[in-house]
Each structure stands twice: as structure tokens, then as C-alpha cells.
Design a protein that fits this description.
mainly alpha; Aspartate Aminotransferase, domain 2; 3-stranded parallel beta sheet; 7 helices; extended; PyrdxlP-dep_Trfase_major; carboxy-lyase activity; PyrdxlP-dep_de-COase
Length: 217
């Protein structure tokens, strides 16, 4: 297919009336399917993205669509909210995270499911900004007043582009990508990170966060 191919196959305006299921499936097969790229079935993607359409996931989507509950607050759907709490604590235990990361633990820790990886990156960096500024106001951290003009986020050159995009959205002026080397399995080295931090501090910038990468993207 070529760019803008779909506009030539579909009407210029939305249908004024409903269409038959036969027509819908026909449009799917002739217009949509030829323009889809399946990242999981093609070996050319080299497992760049993990499989995300397992049979349990499909059944889970079926239940979610069928129940159609609003889970933005406990009172809106108690079971939905509490299931998220319990399952994410399972995940924290599976990853052997310290207990302070658990929802069912006294303290500020906890987990929440975000809508996408990009959304999660924005939320995490926004939380880091708020914490950094709160610490400065409380006198817990000395040095320059942290503002979005002098904050810097560190990551390796293997980190997904969502971090750079999150920095742009949040107005974080500086994103320092640290070069990795094949002889070290493209892993971020502590010495390289320390050197990058020292260089940024020498320029008058305030370190905000270090983003690590596990696996592929």
C-alpha cells in the first residue's frame, strides 16, 4: 500500500445509515487488512515488540468490553479498583521489589495501570518534578532551584523514544543520552552515568531522574 491509500477506498463522509455485517467484513478484508502490519507474525521485526495478543489477553478484553465498568475511583467500581491493587502487588512480588512499592503496605508506595507506556513515562517524570521541587522548598535538597529549564533526565542510547517525548511534553529542557557499547552488552555503566551527572552539574543543571532499560524497547 501507499500513503493515503485508504482515503481512496472509503467514502469521503460517514455513512448516513447502518451497513450490513457482510459489507463491514468486506470493507475489512479489502481495505483494512492489506494495510495492517503484524509485528508478531513477521520474523523481520526480530522480537522488537513483545507478543501482546495472547489468548488470555483476548478473553480479558472480551470481559472488559462486556462488563464496561468505570474504574477511575473506588466508589465508581470497587471490584475494578481493588483488583488492580491486588494484581499489581502480585507483580511487585514477582519482580522482587521492596515492600514499600506495594499498595497494601503502609507508606507512599503503590502501583497503577496507565493507558500506555508513553503515558506512564509522562506520569513518572511529572512525579519526579513534583518531588524534586517539594524537597527543595522543604530545604531537604541544597543547590539550584529546580525548574524545567535546568532539570536534566539521564538515559542510555537504548532507551525508547517515549522518554525524549515525555521530556518535550513536560518542558524538561535537557535529556542526556549516554552511549553504550556492544562489548558491555549495551548496558548502562555506572562510571559513564556518574561522568554524565558530573558534566551536567558543572553546567549548572539539576539531575532529575535516571531511566533504565530492561530487555528490548
Amino acid at each position: 500500500v501507499k500513503p493515503n491509500y485508504l482515503s481512496e477506498l472509503l467514502p469521503a463522509s460517514a455513512p448516513a445509515s447502518s451497513e450490513s455485517w457482510t459489507k463491514i467484513i468486506s470493507d475489512l478484508n479489502t481495505a483494512i487488512m492489506p494495510g495492517l502490519t503484524n509485528w508478531e507474525s513477521s520474523s523481520k521485526f526480530f522480537a522488537y515488540f513483545k507478543p501482546h495478543a495472547s489468548y488470555p489477553a483476548v478473553l480479558g478484553e472480551l470481559l472488559c468490553a462486556g462488563l464496561n465498568v468505570m474504574g477511575f475511583d473506588w466508589i465508581a467500581s470497587p471490584a475494578c479498583t481493588e483488583l488492580e491493587v491486588v494484581v499489581l502487588d502480585w507483580l511487585a512480588k514477582f519482580l522482587t521489589l521492596p515492600s514499600k512499592f506495594y499498595n497494601l503496605h503502609e507508606g507512599p508506595g503503590g502501583s497503577v495501570i496507565q493507558g500506555s507506556a508513553g503515558e506512564a513515562a509522562i506520569v513518572v517524570l511529572l512525579a519526579a518534578i513534583i518531588r524534586k521541587q517539594s524537597e527543595h522548598r522543604a530545604g531537604k535538597k541544597l543547590g539550584r532551584n529546580p525548574s524545567r529549564d535546568n532539570l536534566v533526565v539521564f538515559s542510555s542510547d537504548q532507551t525508547h523514544s517515549i522518554i525524549a517525548k515525555a521530556c518535550m511534553i513536560l518542558g524538561i529542557a535537557h535529556h542526556h543520552q549516554i552511549k553504550t557499547r556492544p562489548g558491555q552488552y549495551y548496558a548502562l555503566q555506572a562510571a559513564d552515568l556518574q561522568e554524565a551527572i558530573d558534566d551536567e552539574i558543572a553546567l549548572g543543571r539539576v539531575p532529575l531522574a535516571v531511566v533504565i532499560t530492561t530487555g528490548t524497547t
